[in-house]
Design goal:
The chain is of the alpha/beta class. It is built from 16 helices and 13 strands. Helices cover 41% and strands 15% of the residues. The longest helix is centred in the first third of the chain and has 15 residues.
């Protein structure tokens, strides 16, 4: 049975999570007289975590089980976990239900019991949900595997970095080596803004001698100031292992307020002669937040434009121009971030290198060449059509 099928099966059964009664078929959580309704996908995520209680599950595991055959970004899973924590009154820094395992995923740490067995026996521990089969076995049994054949190095629908990333040399140089500390990366949808941010994160995290400490902050779906704070908290937790290597415990930086966290992080990094590289994706979300809380954006701009120890990069589409309007006594949010760094289509040579995947290992390139993709006419056909 695949993990997706197992999650679906669990979704029809009530269970108990610590003191909460969980009713997946009703999308309902109950604690005494209190009832919380959650979105169906959130319930699917919770059911999946419950099925694998005590195990570390990655974001990919959750995606494959809950968002079958859909391309989503990591932030969708991150936001689902944050929403579940709010529903359960959980704390990411001192979790009682869902624990974040840095660079690996999440683990449900609260006890899970079957509703039916809970009422039929006094021994609650004997009714714990059985662990799921190993991932490898689950995938082997899946009737519709989703993974692309290993023979193809192309990545479709998701961001890329490292050996899969091509081009953007001028933009990377301007962001990392230029004189501006506040930059707006402007590009159309699907042109590769997230990939560029991820490549910047990869390059600077892999080379501490660059003097930058990157933190990738995805704002997608942040509909309230509380969610904005929680998203930054999750982004900070993702850097925990790198902070440890610098001798900075994340507990000395983390706070419920993102501005407090940013200030602490910037000061700690300055003491290590490092500059915070704040990589912000899907910044269009700030347009809605401005309408709800204009003061929040004023504080955020001041934090991002601190005089020392921070370089801020905003990635968005042209919609962000809405925050450039001068309608208040104070400067608009985009003041200092313009003119933008434009993200244009790849040059012809960059496109050819991508199609040929010139950065693959020799063995990988040979396997790819055997498929005939390196034929000059085929490369030009692909380049012109794509």
């Amino acid at each position: 049975m695949s993990r997706v099928q197992s999650a679906d099966k669990l979704a029809s059964e009530d269970f108990v999570l610590a003191e909460w009664r969980v009713q997946p078929s009703l999308n309902r959580l109950s604690l005494g007289d209190r009832t919380v309704q959650v979105e169906p996908k959130l319930m699917d995520v919770l059911s999946f975590l419950a099925e694998h209680a005590g195990e570390v599950v990655s974001k990919d595991d959750i995606t494959n089980a809950v968002w079958t055959d859909q391309f989503i970004t990591d932030s969708v899973v991150t936001r689902a976990i944050a929403a579940l924590r709010r529903a359960l009154d959980d704390d990411a820094h001192d979790p009682r239900y869902i624990e974040t395992i840095s660079k690996r995923g999440y683990r449900l740490i609260a006890p899970v019991t079957s509703e039916s067995k809970r009422h039929s026996t006094s021994d609650v521990e004997s009714a714990e949900v059985s662990p799921a089969p190993p991932i490898s076995a689950a995938l082997a049994d899946s009737p519709t595997p989703r993974k692309v054949s290993p023979a193809s190095p192309f990545v479709v629908g998701q961001w890329v970095r490292g050996e899969h990333f091509y081009g953007r040399v001028a933009q990377i140089s301007e962001i990392l080596d230029g004189n501006r500390n506040w930059l707006w990366l402007l590009g159309t949808r699907r042109i590769g803004k997230t990939s560029l941010l991820k490549q910047l994160e990869y390059l600077t995290a892999s080379s501490p001698e660059s003097g930058y400490f990157p933190i990738f902050w995805d704002l997608q779906g942040a509909a309230s100031s509380e969610e904005l704070h929680e998203d930054f908290s999750d982004a900070l937790l993702d850097t925990e292992d790198r902070l440890d290597r610098l001798g900075i415990p994340v507990s000395e930086v983390a706070a419920d307020d993102l501005f407090t966290s940013l200030g602490r992080l910037r000061r700690k990094l300055r003491s290590k002669k490092m500059c915070l590289l704040l990589l912000c994706d899907e910044v269009e979300e700030l347009i809605q937040l401005k309408a709800k809380d204009p003061s929040l954006l004023r504080k955020l701009r001041r934090a991002m434009q601190s005089r020392e120890g921070i370089r801020s990069v905003l990635a968005s589409s042209v919609r962000l121009w809405a925050l450039a309007d001068q309608k208040e006594d104070t400067s608009p949010f985009l003041h200092g971030f313009t003119p933008p760094v434009y993200l244009d289509p790849l040059t012809d040579d960059e496109a050819r290198a991508l199609i040929r995947h010139t950065q693959l290992s020799p063995d990988g390139r040979q396997a790819f060449a055997d498929a005939g993709v390196f034929d000059d006419r085929a490369v030009e056909e692909i380049r012109q059509r794509c």
